[in-house]
Amino acid sequence: MKVLVVNNMAPFVRGGAEELAAHLEENLVASGHEAEVLRIPLRLDPASRIPSQMLMVRALEMFNVDRVIALKFPAYLIRHPHKTLWLLRQYRQAYDSSDAGQSNLPEDPPGQEIRRVIRNADNEAFGESRRIFAISKTSQQRLAHYNGVNADVLTPPLNDAELFRGGSSEGYVFAGGRINSMKRQYLLLEALALVPRNVRLVIAGQPDTPQDAARLTQLVEAHALGDRVTLDLRCLPRAELAQYVNRALVCACVPWNEDFGYLAAEAAAAGKPVITAHDSGGVLELVRHLETGWVVAPEPQALADAMAAACLSTTTTVNYGTAARDHWFGMGVTWPKTVERLLT
Amino acid sequence: MNLLFFTPAASSSAIGRVTQLVGRELKARGHTVTMVRTEDYAFIGTPPRQFGAELVRWDDTKRVFRVARDADAIVYQIGDSFPFHRGCVEWLPSLPGIVCLHDYFLGGLFSGWAGARWMMAKAILQSCYGEEVAASYFAYENAVDFVEGTRERAPMTEWIAAMATGVITHSSWDIQRILRACPGPVEVIPLAYDKPNASPTVGSCSGPGPVDGSAGRDDMLILTVGRVNANKRVDSVLRAIGTAPQLQHTAILRLVGHIESDVQARLSALARSLRVRLLISGEVDDVTLAHAIERADVVCCLRFPALEAASASTIEAMLCGKAVIVTDTGFYRELPDDCVCKVAPNHEVSDLQDKLVFLAQNPAERTALGNRAAQWAAATFSPRLYAERLVDFALRAARAAPVIEACRHFANTLVGWGASQGGLPMQDTIAPLRIFEQSCR
Fold first, then answer.
1. How far is CA A64 from CA A1, B220, B254, in A?
2. What is the pLDDT of residue A101?
3. What whole-number distance in Å separates Cα of residue A60 and Cα of residue A232?
4. Could you give the number of structural domains in chain A?
5. B187: which strand partners?
6. What is the extent of the structural domain holding A75?
């Protein structure tokens, strides 16, 4: 079968979704299919340019393709008679982020019009898809709430599970991945200022904007955390990121309403527990409070207490990590099963 | 090139005459021409002009599809008359083509078309001009109020232009509307016209003839041609004559064209009260009209407001070498100052009076003016040039057609997604499509 995986791209930027698309292609080929990834250029800022990019995707016609697996907005607007959605990302700023006042879509009439166009286009694309999979219960519930769509959950396997083998702890708290206000790494720095001086924090990943980077460096200076914090603000090779995870005592992942916690899954695979927040969305499907980590309020003091607890009793922390690994592997999330379900 | 014209064919349609002239020139250049006559049922049975081409009725769907399928270009002759142009608006949406626009006001055409499609018409009004205009459009009590109330706010030119793959118009005075509405090329080409029924000595035989037996050789015969309505300004002509002692005993005003009985009675009464000699000939055939123009000393082509892209009667009068008086507005303003006399619309009666007195007292100037007009008009309103430019334009429109189709596709997609007109930030939305502009214009 000829399977086309359709994803967005920002030229010269690669993230988890790009890795997932590449691994999906590899595993489709490994399963005996022909597969390619079509990457469609996308820029979401300014928001006024979104409709034209949606139109461009909609105008594409696929031929010589038996199946399309589309991953993201607006790539999933592409037309094909046998299209499956594995929904890594809607344009949440037209949905829950907008309701939470965290959208780049203005509240003026043009902004409302863009929001309406995005939602209607999504509904059209969902309606013409043969099957829709969500990557977590969080995104499943969002789809049901905003679009009236019943999707099945299909948890993404780790792209490179072999890198996350765990290892002895060097005693730091690790927060990895993209850096922006929605990921809320700043909360961890504010928490660090409230815990004993033996707790160390490593934040590693690529800031979305210079402002996101500046916010963290300013917090480090303001709270005089320089000797306890490592800010490795760049796009890290996967192996380096995995090294940070493997050598951590505990990982911290406190995004606002994330679809799926890739970092939490990687941490679990490496046998590391996770500190997360009540409102972190899909991360909560992988972290059980005081079993595989800590689930606390998204506030500096609560996070400080969790970080302190993790560093105080390392035996408990290691045990939580083991339980996290058991939970993750117990879910049976593998590429062969994933490919099979996507092509059902 | 195989060209298919949607056009009125009735002999009373000046636009039909344009088509006849252009079609003849196209055929002379080796092109193939087919005609679809567009009159509504009340007129479609009238004897057609001799186009020398296959003639199909607009309601003969099967044949229309057949000739359209074989056409390289489809050309719609559109003016502000639903009875004459019904077939154009019936077919233009499904067989897009080039529109030759003869009027910049299409309220009459639209109203006629809207009669059986009220909801669709209202949606078009809302889309083109907004809710407020749509709500009041059909509420006018009479034609004069309707024209006055809609000619600037909702002339409906955008409605037609938006459906066209390109627009040829015959003057530029209100072309901005077309440029905004038409996605394809837009071009001004002087109207094609001639004087087919004029005698070879036209221009030299002016002066009253048998029809105005009460006139003397020294009288000045002033002619106004066309359906007599308010914008022909006949009241003003009567007042200009009636209040000028130099004109009262020498000027005769003749009206040729359809006139309603109540209008005839009112104008006759006004003429009597002003002691102006008024001849009302009513609707006449082409030969009689040509003869009337020949006999005239001055042809008065006042219009206010101006609604047309070009005036066939004005051009015919100029081609016949007559001294022509026009209102300094619209198409008429674009005529050369040394070929016609122009009357300022805000000093209409006094300005007209001055011009008439001058022409009455200077027969030689009258003749010279007519000669300049004839020379310029013959060079400008040329069927040969029109045909050549139409073919070039059709090729440009054909190049633009795929781009227009793409734009329509995108627009329809956006509408399908719930976008309203003007709701989206359109500049950013259409920016990626600008790469096509060069080939479109």
1. 10, 81, 75
2. 84
3. 40
4. 2
5. B168
6. 2-154
Cβ atoms of B192 and B310 within 8 Å: the answer is no
Q: Do B428 and A49 touch (CB under 8 A)?
A: yes
Q: What is the pLDDT of residues B8-53, one digit of tens each?
A: 999 889 999 999 999 999 999 999 999 999 999 999 999 999 999 9
Same-domain check for residues A107 and A170: no
Same domain for A284 and A303, yes or no, is yes
Cβ separation B432–A121 shorter than 8 A:
no
Residue numbers in A near B417 (CB within 8 A): 54, 116-117, 120-121, 124
- Asked if residue A335 is part of any domain, the answer here is no
> What confidence tier does B411 reach under pLDDT thresholds 50, 70, 90?
confident
Q: Which of B417, B430, B433 sits opposite A120 (nearest CB)?
A: B417
Tell me whether B428 touches chain A (CB under 8 Å).
Answer: yes
Backbone angles phi, psi at B7, to 5 degrees: -155, 150
Spans in chain A with pLDDT lower than 50: none
Coil, strand or helix: which one is A247? coil
Look at B419 and A49 and tell me if their CB atoms are within 8 Å.
no
Single residue among A154, A183, A198 that ends a domain in this structure: A154
In a domain, A57, yes or no: yes
A110 in a structural domain: yes
Residues A324 and A191 placed together within one structural domain of the fold: yes
A124 at the B interface (CB within 8 A)? Answer: yes
Distances (CA, A) of A95 to A62, A98, A115, A116: 29, 5, 8, 10
* A201 plus A248 within the same structural domain: yes
Residue B249's Cβ-count burial label (10 Å; 0-12, 13-18, 19+) is exposed
Both A92 and A179 in one domain: the answer is no
Cβ separation B424–A110 shorter than 8 A? yes
Same-domain check for residues A190 and A219: yes
Task: Single out the residue of A84, A117, A262 nearest to residue A178, CA to CA.
Answer: A262
Regarding whether A289 and A273 lie in a shared domain, the answer is yes
> What is the C-alpha to C-alpha distance for residues B10 and B356, in angstroms, rounded to an integer?
35
B63 backbone dihedrals φ, ψ, rounded to 5°? -70, -35
Question: What confidence tens digit (pLDDT) does each residue in A297-337 have?
Answer: 999 999 999 999 999 999 999 999 999 999 999 999 999 99
pTM over 0.80: no
Kindly report the nearest CA distance between residue B423 and chain A, in angstroms: 5
Q: Which of A102, A132, A154 is the last residue of a domain?
A: A154
Cα–Cα dist A157/A266, whole Å = 10
Any domain includes A126? yes
Q: What is the CATH number of the domain that holds A287?
A: 3.40.50.2000
